[in-house]
Amino acid sequence: MASEFLWYIPNQVAPGHRGDAVTANHNSLETLTAQALALEEHGWGGALIGTGWSRPDTLTVATALAARTTTFKPLAAVRPGYWHPAHFASTAATLNHLSGGRLLVNIVSGKDNLAAYGDDEGDQAHRYARTREFMRIVRALWTQEHVTFDGEHFRVTDSTLELRPAKPPRLYFGGASAAAEAVAATEADVQLFWGEPLDDVQKRIERLRTLAAERGRAHPPLEFGLRVTTLVRDTTEQAWADAEAKVAKMAEGAIQKDPNWFVAVGQQRLLDLTARGDVLDDNLYTAPGRYGGGGAGTTWLVGSAADVAKSLRRYQELGITHFVLSDTPYLPELERQGRRLLPLLS
Hints:
Elements (H helix, E strand, L loop, with lengths): L3 E6 L19 H13 L4 E4 L8 H10 L5 E6 L6 H14 L5 E4 L16 H20 L3 E4 L4 E5 L11 E4 L3 H10 L2 E4 L4 H17 L8 E11 L2 H16 L13 H8 L6 E2 L3 E2 L14 E5 H14 L1 E7 L3 H11 L6
Parallel strand pairs: 1-2, 1-13, 2-3, 3-4, 4-7, 7-8, 8-9, 9-12, 9-13
Antiparallel strand pairs: 5-6, 10-11, 11-12
Helix pairs in contact: 1-10, 2-3, 3-4, 4-5, 5-6
């Protein structure tokens, strides 16, 4: 199976996300479009667009960028609770239609400022049970007529989308807790992992495949993806010098910590890696997690293009076929890695 390579577009109100260049128009349509067009030019399939109450609305950004591009695939992150499943299914089906089938969807169940938009997700079991219902209703509305679903969290009665997608968007999903993995094994198309060591990723893939078989998965086999920072330079030595300089700046307090990162099981797994060493496998750098790196910024693959390509190929050998990479500043780095890294992975 051919691998998919996506980047990350930071739809943030505040400039300087994870060390990105601070500019007055960082979140303008022109700036975001320039990134999407550069991704097309440099061989990327598209980009993840994150979600959160503090950000501009993700599907609005995805729609605007799809309208100004031709091959760019927005991987739009969405949250059950922010969206009702029937409303989301209709909105996403419309965007998928208007973009010629380019929409990808990342379902997110992590913490957010729920009270600000009137949501109450409850405990972890409640949150993932709701996510499972959300995904089931959305899939049903994309593929069936006269959908009736009477769940604990959501209900629809005799619901039909008149504009159903010929090929429904793929549903990406993350989460490392037992509750999250149970949802992924039965409902997701692609399970995304953070940048964990190879052995840990292999164990999770094996566990998810076993869970899928035990729970009678009804969909095509679950696929797997990696969301990680890739710091690429001309030489191994320059890459490590730049990586260490970035971490030194983070240690001075230049990177702000998000408290929501540190309550998630998957995030805690990343933070715990620092006890095993600053560098794991050949070039998985764990030190950023000590100083505020969260999510994909917690661990970095560091090295020359050849070094990083070698590491990504080892993840491919485990069964990873979807990659969401990034580094800052975003635009120069997507161009650099498009020129130097992607050709080594084709």
